[in-house]
Amino acid sequence: MLSRLKRPQAVAVCALPVAALLATAAFAPLPFSVAQPGSTANVLGAYKGSEVIRISGAPVRETSGQLRMTTIVATGPDTDVRLGDVLDNWFATDRAVMPRDAVYPSGDDLEEIERHNIEQMEESQTAATRAALGHLGLDASDVDVTLRLADVGGPSAGLLFSLGIIDKLEGDGSGGDLTGGKVIAGTGTIDADGEVGAVGGVPLKTQAARRDGASVFLVPKAECAQAEAELPEGLRLIPVTTLKGAVDALKALASGKGSVPRC
Protein backbone atom coordinates (compact mmCIF):
# COMPACT_ATOMS: atom_id res chain seq x y z
CA MET A 1 0.00 0.00 0.00
CA LEU A 2 1.38 3.45 -0.98
CA SER A 3 0.78 6.55 1.06
CA ARG A 4 0.87 10.02 -0.47
CA LEU A 5 3.64 12.33 0.77
CA LYS A 6 2.98 15.95 1.50
CA ARG A 7 4.77 18.35 -0.92
CA PRO A 8 7.60 19.41 1.46
CA GLN A 9 8.28 15.76 2.22
CA ALA A 10 8.26 14.85 -1.46
CA VAL A 11 10.70 17.64 -2.31
CA ALA A 12 13.00 16.54 0.48
CA VAL A 13 12.93 12.91 -0.65
CA CYS A 14 13.59 13.88 -4.30
CA ALA A 15 16.42 16.16 -3.27
CA LEU A 16 18.32 13.32 -1.62
CA PRO A 17 19.39 11.51 -4.83
CA VAL A 18 20.12 14.85 -6.56
CA ALA A 19 22.37 15.91 -3.68
CA ALA A 20 24.09 12.54 -3.75
CA LEU A 21 24.61 12.86 -7.50
CA LEU A 22 26.10 16.36 -7.16
CA ALA A 23 28.36 15.22 -4.34
CA THR A 24 29.59 12.32 -6.45
CA ALA A 25 30.13 14.59 -9.49
CA ALA A 26 32.13 17.05 -7.38
CA PHE A 27 34.73 14.42 -6.56
CA ALA A 28 34.59 12.15 -9.62
CA PRO A 29 37.11 12.63 -12.49
CA LEU A 30 35.47 14.13 -15.58
CA PRO A 31 36.44 13.54 -19.24
CA PHE A 32 37.85 17.05 -19.76
CA SER A 33 41.19 18.79 -20.12
CA VAL A 34 41.94 22.37 -19.11
CA ALA A 35 44.03 24.25 -21.68
CA GLN A 36 45.83 27.59 -21.67
CA PRO A 37 48.06 29.60 -24.05
CA GLY A 38 51.39 27.85 -24.59
CA SER A 39 54.75 28.85 -25.95
CA THR A 40 55.41 30.31 -29.39
CA ALA A 41 58.51 29.87 -31.53
CA ASN A 42 59.95 31.93 -34.36
CA VAL A 43 60.55 29.37 -37.10
CA LEU A 44 62.96 31.79 -38.81
CA GLY A 45 65.26 31.66 -35.79
CA ALA A 46 66.32 29.25 -33.06
CA TYR A 47 64.26 27.41 -30.47
CA LYS A 48 65.86 25.97 -27.34
CA GLY A 49 69.32 26.39 -28.81
CA SER A 50 68.69 24.82 -32.22
CA GLU A 51 67.93 26.52 -35.51
CA VAL A 52 64.38 25.57 -36.46
CA ILE A 53 64.86 25.52 -40.25
CA ARG A 54 68.13 24.41 -41.82
CA ILE A 55 68.51 24.39 -45.59
CA SER A 56 71.33 23.16 -47.81
CA GLY A 57 71.56 22.85 -51.58
CA ALA A 58 70.20 26.35 -52.27
CA PRO A 59 71.14 29.92 -51.29
CA VAL A 60 69.54 30.98 -48.00
CA ARG A 61 68.51 34.58 -47.29
CA GLU A 62 69.06 36.63 -44.15
CA THR A 63 65.59 37.44 -42.84
CA SER A 64 64.05 40.09 -40.62
CA GLY A 65 60.72 39.90 -38.89
CA GLN A 66 59.35 36.75 -37.32
CA LEU A 67 57.06 33.85 -38.17
CA ARG A 68 55.84 32.47 -34.85
CA MET A 69 54.12 29.12 -34.58
CA THR A 70 51.76 28.89 -31.60
CA THR A 71 50.80 26.19 -29.10
CA ILE A 72 48.43 25.46 -26.27
CA VAL A 73 49.26 23.65 -23.03
CA ALA A 74 46.67 21.22 -21.66
CA THR A 75 46.39 19.10 -18.55
CA GLY A 76 47.75 15.62 -19.26
CA PRO A 77 45.56 12.71 -20.33
CA ASP A 78 46.16 11.05 -16.97
CA THR A 79 45.30 14.18 -14.94
CA ASP A 80 42.04 14.05 -12.98
CA VAL A 81 39.86 17.06 -13.81
CA ARG A 82 36.97 17.46 -11.39
CA LEU A 83 33.83 19.56 -11.28
CA GLY A 84 35.54 22.29 -9.28
CA ASP A 85 38.28 22.58 -11.93
CA VAL A 86 35.68 22.85 -14.68
CA LEU A 87 33.71 25.56 -12.85
CA ASP A 88 36.87 27.52 -11.94
CA ASN A 89 38.10 27.62 -15.54
CA TRP A 90 34.86 27.72 -17.54
CA PHE A 91 34.57 31.52 -17.64
CA ALA A 92 38.29 32.37 -17.61
CA THR A 93 39.39 34.11 -20.81
CA ASP A 94 42.87 32.60 -20.62
CA ARG A 95 41.63 29.05 -20.05
CA ALA A 96 39.48 26.62 -22.01
CA VAL A 97 37.71 23.49 -20.82
CA MET A 98 37.84 21.00 -23.68
CA PRO A 99 36.66 17.39 -24.06
CA ARG A 100 39.70 15.22 -23.42
CA ASP A 101 39.07 13.33 -26.67
CA ALA A 102 39.40 16.63 -28.54
CA VAL A 103 42.92 17.06 -27.14
CA TYR A 104 44.20 13.49 -26.95
CA PRO A 105 43.45 10.34 -28.95
CA SER A 106 40.80 8.32 -27.16
CA GLY A 107 41.89 5.15 -25.38
CA ASP A 108 45.66 5.65 -25.76
CA ASP A 109 48.05 5.64 -22.83
CA LEU A 110 50.56 8.43 -22.23
CA GLU A 111 53.40 6.80 -24.17
CA GLU A 112 51.14 6.10 -27.16
CA ILE A 113 49.89 9.69 -27.14
CA GLU A 114 53.44 11.08 -27.08
CA ARG A 115 54.43 8.76 -29.91
CA HIS A 116 51.33 9.79 -31.88
CA ASN A 117 52.15 13.50 -31.44
CA ILE A 118 55.74 12.96 -32.57
CA GLU A 119 54.56 11.04 -35.64
CA GLN A 120 52.10 13.83 -36.48
CA MET A 121 54.86 16.42 -36.20
CA GLU A 122 57.17 14.41 -38.44
CA GLU A 123 54.44 13.96 -41.05
CA SER A 124 53.66 17.67 -40.82
CA GLN A 125 57.32 18.58 -41.39
CA THR A 126 57.53 16.36 -44.46
CA ALA A 127 54.31 17.82 -45.90
CA ALA A 128 55.41 21.38 -45.10
CA THR A 129 58.72 20.88 -46.89
CA ARG A 130 57.08 19.36 -49.97
CA ALA A 131 54.45 22.12 -50.07
CA ALA A 132 57.04 24.90 -49.78
CA LEU A 133 59.44 23.48 -52.36
CA GLY A 134 56.54 22.75 -54.69
CA HIS A 135 55.35 26.34 -54.34
CA LEU A 136 58.83 27.56 -55.28
CA GLY A 137 59.21 25.06 -58.14
CA LEU A 138 62.26 23.45 -56.54
CA ASP A 139 63.20 19.79 -56.62
CA ALA A 140 63.30 18.11 -53.21
CA SER A 141 66.18 15.95 -54.41
CA ASP A 142 68.33 19.07 -54.85
CA VAL A 143 67.36 21.00 -51.72
CA ASP A 144 67.68 19.46 -48.27
CA VAL A 145 65.48 20.91 -45.51
CA THR A 146 65.74 19.91 -41.85
CA LEU A 147 63.08 21.09 -39.41
CA ARG A 148 63.62 20.89 -35.66
CA LEU A 149 61.27 22.01 -32.90
CA ALA A 150 62.14 20.36 -29.59
CA ASP A 151 59.36 19.22 -27.25
CA VAL A 152 56.55 20.27 -29.59
CA GLY A 153 54.27 17.66 -31.12
CA GLY A 154 51.27 17.57 -33.43
CA PRO A 155 50.66 18.92 -36.93
CA SER A 156 49.57 22.51 -36.26
CA ALA A 157 52.91 24.18 -37.15
CA GLY A 158 52.76 22.96 -40.75
CA LEU A 159 51.69 26.26 -42.33
CA LEU A 160 54.33 28.26 -40.46
CA PHE A 161 57.06 25.76 -41.40
CA SER A 162 56.18 26.15 -45.08
CA LEU A 163 56.15 29.94 -44.87
CA GLY A 164 59.49 29.90 -43.06
CA ILE A 165 61.10 27.80 -45.78
CA ILE A 166 59.74 30.13 -48.46
CA ASP A 167 60.94 33.24 -46.63
CA LYS A 168 64.44 31.82 -46.20
CA LEU A 169 64.70 30.80 -49.86
CA GLU A 170 62.77 33.50 -51.74
CA GLY A 171 61.32 36.09 -49.35
CA ASP A 172 58.67 38.12 -51.12
CA GLY A 173 60.27 37.39 -54.49
CA SER A 174 61.42 41.00 -54.91
CA GLY A 175 64.31 41.16 -52.47
CA GLY A 176 62.21 41.77 -49.36
CA ASP A 177 60.99 39.64 -46.52
CA LEU A 178 57.73 37.72 -46.63
CA THR A 179 57.01 39.08 -43.14
CA GLY A 180 57.59 42.68 -44.16
CA GLY A 181 59.68 42.94 -40.99
CA LYS A 182 56.62 42.31 -38.79
CA VAL A 183 55.97 39.68 -36.13
CA ILE A 184 53.54 37.32 -37.83
CA ALA A 185 52.03 34.41 -35.94
CA GLY A 186 49.62 31.71 -36.94
CA THR A 187 48.52 28.12 -36.94
CA GLY A 188 47.24 25.52 -39.34
CA THR A 189 48.00 22.07 -40.67
CA ILE A 190 49.24 21.70 -44.23
CA ASP A 191 49.38 18.89 -46.73
CA ALA A 192 51.88 18.33 -49.52
CA ASP A 193 49.59 20.12 -51.98
CA GLY A 194 49.52 23.26 -49.84
CA GLU A 195 46.00 22.91 -48.44
CA VAL A 196 45.62 24.44 -44.96
CA GLY A 197 43.51 22.67 -42.33
CA ALA A 198 41.91 23.57 -39.00
CA VAL A 199 43.65 22.77 -35.72
CA GLY A 200 41.57 23.73 -32.65
CA GLY A 201 42.46 25.88 -29.65
CA VAL A 202 42.66 29.02 -31.80
CA PRO A 203 41.42 31.55 -29.17
CA LEU A 204 44.20 30.46 -26.81
CA LYS A 205 46.78 30.57 -29.60
CA THR A 206 45.84 34.15 -30.51
CA GLN A 207 46.47 35.12 -26.88
CA ALA A 208 49.89 33.46 -26.96
CA ALA A 209 50.68 35.25 -30.23
CA ARG A 210 49.74 38.70 -28.93
CA ARG A 211 51.60 38.08 -25.66
CA ASP A 212 54.76 37.38 -27.68
CA GLY A 213 54.52 40.49 -29.83
CA ALA A 214 52.57 39.45 -32.92
CA SER A 215 50.38 41.98 -34.69
CA VAL A 216 49.07 39.59 -37.38
CA PHE A 217 47.67 36.09 -37.01
CA LEU A 218 47.16 33.62 -39.85
CA VAL A 219 44.13 31.45 -39.07
CA PRO A 220 42.52 28.60 -41.01
CA LYS A 221 39.42 30.17 -42.56
CA ALA A 222 37.14 27.55 -41.01
CA GLU A 223 38.15 28.80 -37.55
CA CYS A 224 37.58 32.52 -38.12
CA ALA A 225 34.51 32.67 -35.88
CA GLN A 226 36.35 31.04 -32.98
CA ALA A 227 39.31 33.38 -33.39
CA GLU A 228 37.12 36.49 -33.55
CA ALA A 229 35.14 35.54 -30.44
CA GLU A 230 38.03 36.30 -28.05
CA LEU A 231 40.48 38.20 -30.26
CA PRO A 232 43.13 40.14 -28.30
CA GLU A 233 43.25 43.85 -28.97
CA GLY A 234 45.85 44.82 -31.54
CA LEU A 235 45.92 41.48 -33.35
CA ARG A 236 44.76 41.33 -36.98
CA LEU A 237 43.34 38.10 -38.37
CA ILE A 238 44.10 36.88 -41.88
CA PRO A 239 42.08 33.81 -42.93
CA VAL A 240 43.83 31.28 -45.17
CA THR A 241 42.87 28.09 -46.97
CA THR A 242 46.04 27.43 -48.98
CA LEU A 243 49.77 28.09 -48.78
CA LYS A 244 49.58 30.23 -51.92
CA GLY A 245 46.80 32.28 -50.37
CA ALA A 246 48.87 32.83 -47.22
CA VAL A 247 51.93 33.90 -49.26
CA ASP A 248 49.85 36.26 -51.40
CA ALA A 249 48.22 37.79 -48.32
CA LEU A 250 51.57 38.42 -46.62
CA LYS A 251 53.00 39.97 -49.79
CA ALA A 252 50.00 42.28 -50.07
CA LEU A 253 50.27 43.20 -46.40
CA ALA A 254 54.00 43.96 -46.66
CA SER A 255 53.74 45.98 -49.87
CA GLY A 256 50.47 47.73 -49.14
CA LYS A 257 49.33 46.70 -52.60
CA GLY A 258 46.43 44.37 -53.27
CA SER A 259 43.73 43.10 -50.93
CA VAL A 260 44.39 41.30 -47.68
CA PRO A 261 41.65 38.83 -46.69
CA ARG A 262 39.69 39.39 -43.48
CA CYS A 263 37.56 37.11 -41.36
Automatic annotation (TrEMBL):
Protein name, entry field: Lon proteolytic domain-containing protein
Species annotation: Streptomyces cyaneogriseus subsp. noncyanogenus
Pfam families: Lon_C
Signal peptide location: 1-28
Matching SUPFAM superfamilies: Ribosomal protein S5 domain 2-like
InterPro entries, per the entry: Lon_proteolytic, Ribosomal_Su5_D2-typ_SF, Ribsml_uS5_D2-typ_fold_subgr
MF terms (GO), sorted A to Z: ATP-dependent peptidase activity; serine-type endopeptidase activity
Biological processes, Gene Ontology terms: proteolysis
Every Lon proteolytic domain range: 154-236
Entry keywords, A to Z: Signal
